[in-house]
Amino acid sequence: MQATVELRARRMRARHLLAGLVSAMALAQGGLAHADEAPKAGASPLDEAITVTARKRVERLQDTPIAITAVSQRAMEARGIRSTDGLANLTPNLTLQNNPSYSGASNNASIYIRGIGQSDFVPTVEPGVGVYVDGVYVARSVGAILDLVDFDRIEVLRGPQGTLFGRNTIGGAISVTTTAPDTRALAISGSATTGTDDLAVFKLMANVPISDHFAVRASIAHFGQDGYVRRESDGLLLGNQNHWVGRIAARIEPLPDWTVDIAADGTTGRENGPPTSLIGINYGKTTDPATPPMADIWNTIANVKAGGGPVPCATAAAPVNTAVAGCFDNRYVLGPNANAGTGPSVSNSDIGGVSMTNAIAVSPALTIKSITALRAMVGTYARDGDDSPAAIAQFYDHITQTQFSQELQLLGKALDGRLDWIIGGYFFQESGNDVNNLTFTISQFRSGGYYRNQSLAAFGQGTFKLTDTLKLTAGLRYTHDTKWFHPDQVIIANLASFLGAPFNSPIFDPGTRILPDVMAKVHFSEPTPMVNLAWQPTQSLMTYATWSRGFKSGGFSQRVFPPIIPGVTTPITDPVAAIPSFAPEKVDVYEAGVKFQTPDRRLTFNAAAFDTEYKDMQVQVFTSVAPVFRNAGSASIKGFELESQLRPLHGLLVEGTLGLTAAHYKQIDTATTYIEPTNMFERVSKWTASAGATYDIPLAGGSLLRPHADWSYRSKFYNDAFNTPQIAQAGYSLFNASLGWTSAGGQISLSANVKNIADKRYLLSGVLVDALQAFEGVYNRGREWSLTAAFKL
Fold first, then answer.
1. In the chain, domain spans
2. Quick check: 11 pLDDT over 60?
3. Percent helix, strand, coil in the chain (nearest 5)?
4. pLDDT tens across 771-785, in order?
5. Which CATH code for domain 2-792?
């Protein structure tokens, strides 16, 4: 209670600070209005010519023969988007969920591009879409939803990026480029935002030139907001935000042709856990008939204790039984804003890193670039997996991770400028430990263990100008991965031995190892080639065709239950071989695209069509309590993306996107996966679409009024591979609007945003652990409003 009072007091101070900031800026406007020239006509934040580095060199977006969505910081701010999960409403064929899954993490990125991705967070499984910050790979999905603080642009690269970005970009890559320090001018900027549920966001940035060859840029931000799902047991508000983000960067130019960028960043979060709620209970059945039904077993025990006999106290026919106090039933299905859980719920994380990038222009035809980075993460997460007072499922994870990476690039030109080439090498290593304590109806045990991953790669790519209009690009990367996993998994207590066979078996006794106490090791080596032919007959038009290959590294199944005991529960006698592992999955993608932009940039139209052959799919197989991964399928994915911008009259920008992902299994091992061949892919909508309009209205005195409205649509999707209807989300539309004002010269701005105007409630993610029989969901917050005041000097 005291924490709640202090939180509300802090929010009240935040609102007073916002009011004070607005007043101060209003008083200061007279002295600032003439400091710079008025904004140029049509200078909308959504009307910027963006350059990209998708091919490791700076290019115009329209000259890059790749399907890319590129968004600037100003464009994101104009839409009121504060973190990277907002990209999903702007980018065709992108799913980006903040998905708690089996953890209690309130920041766990579940990213899919063109139907390919990964929802699990465990460190022995790799994501299918790579996330990069200034060229540095962010290996773990926990913490990979990034707060948008002082960045220049975000590029969403669709399709495998296996040649230049490497492994685990089988679906695509999200590349964030921060704003570099500027040696030319002192700059200070800041903003304050208030809004729904005591929203309080503060950002402050300072760019300080020390000399003509040395500058420092520092930024700090706080993101705070009350939760919106209330726990009935203690009043805890789940889904809150309470984290700080800081970054400091320095640019040094020791010589005219040598640039050194050094940066350090950190994020710390202390939050209450994800806003899950119970949707329903799968009485009387599990998808896998061999899986022990934990909810039914719990209800049988509760009924016996109440004197009602050895049958469940609640069934599908009678889903509420308030006469049995300990019964797990529909009394705990409380809707999207309430939770009846009593177990620990917490999401604490500390994430940070340092990096150094050296770029040396040896000559006009040769540049050497080095990217060295170290990152670390410590997280403690817990949540009640049944959202009730019952102890059917309670999850706890303490994860540590440290990663080091070194990339060396040589970029050059040859043959009188007709050949652009890059060759390079890459080294990556990470290690850590996951202490994963779980309490289920029948057992309490520790899962997890020590992991270590190492990757070595060599790559090269060249673009040769066949004619003045025709360019051929070819590239190849060779990757060698080595992975180690040492399980530290042991049963702590047998909670169901009194039920008799099979629960009183010695394999469930305290002290029993769930996996052998040995180190397992696997190796994977994969080539990932790419060939691209681009024809650009005019500056306005380009068409291209690409064949590319990508792969996602294999790994180990960390979660296992019941115990795998060599020679006892499995015929395998070798302890190392008994630890379940799986091989890489691969894709071959054929893509054709067109990019068109009129010379005056009045009309921009980009389109791409793709055909994906998806092989050796890593499928989560629900056998007994824990899901394991197997290479159990292949699939075909076809689709397209359209993106357009139109400026029909001065100051007006209209934009739209449309995406189709048509995925189907070509082969799936239904006998072990329980996935039907006709099922849709999990977390993937067949259709995505968006549209928006922004109008810049000049006012007297040189200031600018900017109304904006946008719409986005996502068709039906399922939150699991079983296509469970209880956690499916029907298609829905979202409508947002904002009104911004910018002073003459652009030093002061005010904006008001309303997100989800129609107050649509929908599932952000859904969870069904087969054995637990509980349908869980995370719903969105509903309609949100915010007011922002910002300044820059």
1. 2-792
2. no
3. 10, 55, 35
4. 899 999 999 999 999
5. 2.40.170.20
